[in-house]
Amino acid sequence: MIPFNKPYLTGKEMHYMYQAVYSGKISGNGVYTQKCQKYFQNRYGIKKALLTTSCTDALEMCALLIDIKPGDEVIVPSYTFVSTALAFARQGAKIVFADSREDHPGMDEKTLEELITPRTKAIVPVHYAGIACDMDKVMALAKRYNLIVVEDAAQAIEANYKGRPLGSIGHLAAFSFHETKNVISGEGGLLAINDDRFIDRSEIIWEKGTNRAEFFRGEVNKYEWIDTGSSFLPSEITAAFLWAQLENLEDIQAKRKAIWNTYHSKLQSWANHNDIKQPQIPSYAGNNAHMYYLCFESLLQRQRVIEQLKDLDIQAVSHYLSLHDSKYYRSKNYEIDRTFPMSDRYTDCLLRLPLYYELSKEDQQRIIEALKSIRLQPVSSNGMDKKVTADSNA
Ligand SMILES: *Cc1c(COP(=O)(O)O)cnc(C)c1O
Question: Which residues are the active-site ones (predicted)?
Fold first, then answer.
């Protein structure tokens, strides 16, 4: 089976983890943590970077930093991972969903202004597949209405907006190093702080509400409980693993981009001919090859493709279920008088193809040939769709 994802090891991970273990400092905020944080600060021009145990945690830190309280509203795309909304919902925010763009699963910036109310506190753009949201538009709205922008840059390492690194534009941003992302540490994340107002408090929230980080720098002679927080920092073992990945970042990216470009060019005429949508990259967005996806014409068509690829030993997968339609959100009984046709469409029709460092040229060619060989059923009428289902079950 060609898997959808395979975590890539650069070869140095165990070595650095061994060093971390035998250095005698295994808990967080040691040498490797600081190496990783400095790396991101320098490379992306982030004012302060803090490693976290996940992107979810980094988003939760954002919710604490911006003082989300019950009654506040936070604008989030419906087509995203649970954490984007959950981090704010658990502090009591009402989540207000934005629909996706027609040409791209990211939030439709045109619709944002009408979602803003006097209770709106923040906008959380998600750079889906590492493809930037139109950040000039988002930041201009935030300025006009005095809102905080938290970039969910979980998928956006090495991607850019008009040449500016994603994660360095919003007031705050969160990255992920989950094993499904470009650069990994098993579980792991990073909080990026680009607005001075949040710098001092961030370190306190990160260290269980204490000024322990200051204490270890010798700036105070005892540390104590001074704010809210949690244990958001990863151990040095995780940071050491991440460091081995960061040392190979450019190699990882070059390989992923080559795979992405091969899919894009070799599937082009087939996709055009069959009305299957390939990713569209807006001119302002620099692609980081996080994901290669296709958008089919219907749920049924996509499901048949998944099944047929599986029969050919290829694992291709769907992605998010729109959050506006989730069990948890519906249980809140918010009155929503809007629909989310684009988010629903990506929920039903989007398919992700295998993309990982060790995907061989031969295996990728096999995936491309397999896709082209699939008999795509007409999707024009429900009657036909039903007949197709019956056929396939026979
Ligand atoms: C992966 C992902 C997350 C969650 O990241 P974790 O590190 O697993 O917590 C959040 N948002 C988006 C858009 C993601 O892709």
Answer: 181
User: Residue 296 CA to chain centroid, in angstroms?
Assistant: 22
**For residue 142, how many C-alpha atoms fall within 13 Å in the half-sphere facing its CB?**
22
pLDDT digits (tens, 9 = 90+) for 307-355: 999 999 999 999 999 999 999 999 998 888 899 999 999 999 999 999 9
Residues 6 or more apart whose CB falls under 8 angstroms from that of 58 comprise: 50, 52, 174, 175, 189, 190, 191, 232
CATH class of the domain defined by 249-373: alpha beta
- Helices vs. strands in the chain: H and E counts, helices first: 15, 12
> How far is it, in rounded angstroms, from Cα 392 to Cα 394?
5
Residue with tokens 């302060």: 48
| Assigned token pair, 151 | 């970039």
Where do we find the tokens 């991101």?
40
Confidence band for 386, pLDDT divided at 50, 70 and 90 = very low
- Which of 53, 56, 86, 242 should be mutated for ligand 1, with most atoms under 8 A from CB? 56
Active site residues: 181
Among residues 150, 171, 161, 55, the alpha carbon closest in space to that of 95 is found at 150
Closest among 109, 94, 177, 180 to 149, alpha carbons compared: 109
Give residue limits of the domains in the chain: 13-247, 249-373
DSSP letter, residue 133: P
Under 8 Å between Cβ of 190 and 52: yes
What number does the ligand 1 atom closest to the CA of 188 have?
7
Q: Which atom of ligand 1 is nearest to the CA of 83?
A: 10
For ligand 1, whether the C-beta of 267 sits within 6 Å is: no
Q: Is the dihedral of CA 348, 325, 353, 254 positive or negative?
A: positive
CA 216 to CA 31: how far, in whole Å?
Answer: 13
According to DSSP, the residues that pair with 240 across neighbouring strands are: none
Please answer whether residues 129 and 155 qualify as being in contact, where contact means their C-beta atoms are separated by less than 8 angstroms: yes
176 close to ligand 1 (CB < 6 Angstrom): yes
Q: Which atom of ligand 1 is nearest to the CA of 176?
A: 7
Correct CATH for 13-247 of 3.40.50.720, 3.40.50.300, 3.20.20.60, 3.40.640.10: 3.40.640.10
